Each structure stands twice: as C-alpha cells, then as structure tokens.
Amino acid sequence: AQSVTQLDSHVSVSEGTPVLLRCNYSSSYSPSLFWYVQHPNKGLQLLLKYTSAATLVKGINGFEAEFKKSETSFHLTKPSAHMSDAAEYFCVVSDQRNDKIIFGKGTRLHILP
Amino acid sequence: GAVVSQHPSWVICKSGTSVKIECRSLDFQATTMFWYRQFPKQSLMLMATSNEGSKATYEQGVEKDKFLINHASLTLSTLTVTSAHPEDSSFYICSATLTGGLETQYFGPGTRLLVL
Fold it and tell me: What is the residue-level pLDDT of chain A in tens, covering all 113 positions?
C-alpha cells in the first residue's frame, strides 16, 4: 500500500533564507514522486517529479528535491525563499504498477519579510 | 503550457438541487481527466478517472450515482453532484492528461461548492 506523509502542516521562513519541506512516503513498488504547488485561486502546478532517473531532481522556480530510498524521503528544498513562494505545497506518490496516486495533506509555506 | 479551466469557479446551491461542474482542456486534447475533492486543510482525494467515450472509473467509497461524470469529448468532462447536501460542500478539482497516464497532469483552478 502507498502512503505519503508531509511532516509539517505549516512552515515559516524569512525571505532569503533556505526552505525545507519534508515528505516521507511508503510504496510497495518503485514509486514516482512529485511536488505540486497550489497558489490561492489557481490550479495545482507541477514543481518537479522523480521517476527512477537521477535521485536529485531540479524543478521550476529554483526548487529541487532529493529521492532517498534508504530514508523513504523526498524533501523539497530551495536555497533562498522569495515572497512569491508563499503557497500550499503537496507531495504526491504514484505507484507505477497500479496507477494509484496519493496526495499528502499539504504544507503551507509562509514567507516572512 | 497546457491549460485546464473549470466552470463555475464557485457555486452556492440549496440542498436537494443538482450542480454541474465543467472541466475543459483549452489547448490540448485530454484522453483522460481526473476529478478530485479537497476538504479544508486536507489533501486531494481522487474521486474518479474519466476516459473520453467510456464510463468513469470511481474510487472506492465514491458514489457513482451521486457524482455523475460525463466525458463526451477530448476537451470536456463534467461532474454533476446530484441531490446535493451540505456534506457535499467542498473544493472540487479536475485535472487532464495528454498521455493518459498519471505522471503529467494539468490541474484546473478548482470549483468551490457550498450547499446550504
């Protein structure tokens, strides 16, 4: 069975400081992993995805995530936060064998001026 | 990039009425569309997978007679909440995929439904 856990419901960082949004997953098979961002009144936007290629995945807007199988983690990072990064972020796991997709509960990122 | 729209963006209705939500892929043909429901401060829950010209596949626990899905063309899928009740109030989000797989979905902006 698949599951995904976003460890923090809210994260606050100051503008210009690093961002870390944590995600742990469980999957019976080789998973595909995604991070999506949801801005108010806008559709979910794909930030990046891991599909069994390079373990360090670079996405849009300066975000990246590292797939660590030993830790079953796929944490999202960004070196320097920008005010426009304030949004809800979802970690998603997809099992390539059964096509099931599971969303995490989301992490609200707040950027302090 | 690929754009998906939803209409209406929000709707308020009386209990017992039916509400139709449209999901359109504006600049591509979507072989598969997905419907999600999002409760406040919770994650998205997949309700059903819709393939053009065939019956939707519903996730366990989702009433197909309650949530009618029609995918009549490659650019339009509709979700009708029949005989809506206050517990159906939620944020409904659709997504569309070019390839038919889950790996690259383009999401609509969502529809907020409030049933009084």
Answer: 778 999 999 999 999 999 999 999 988 777 889 999 998 777 788 899 998 778 999 999 999 999 999 999 999 999 999 999 999 999 998 876 666 678 999 999 999 99
Q: Which of B56, B6, B51 is nearest to B31 (CA)?
A: B51
In terms of Cα–Cα distance, which of A2, A72, A16, A62 is closest to A37? Answer: A62
A43–B106: do the CB atoms touch at under 8 Å? yes
Residues in chain A within 8 Å Cβ distance of B46: 101
User: Which residues 6+ apart lie within 8 Å of B78 measured at CB?
Assistant: B20, B21, B22, B23, B69, B70, B71, B72
Beta-bridged to residue B30, according to DSSP, are none
Name the percent of chain B in helix, strand, coil, to the closest 5: 5, 55, 45
Is residue B109 less than 8 Å (CB to CB) from chain A? yes
| Tokens 């069994």 sit on residue | A52
Scan for tokens 């504006």, then name that residue.
B26
Q: Where are the alpha helices (DSSP H) in A1-113?
A: none
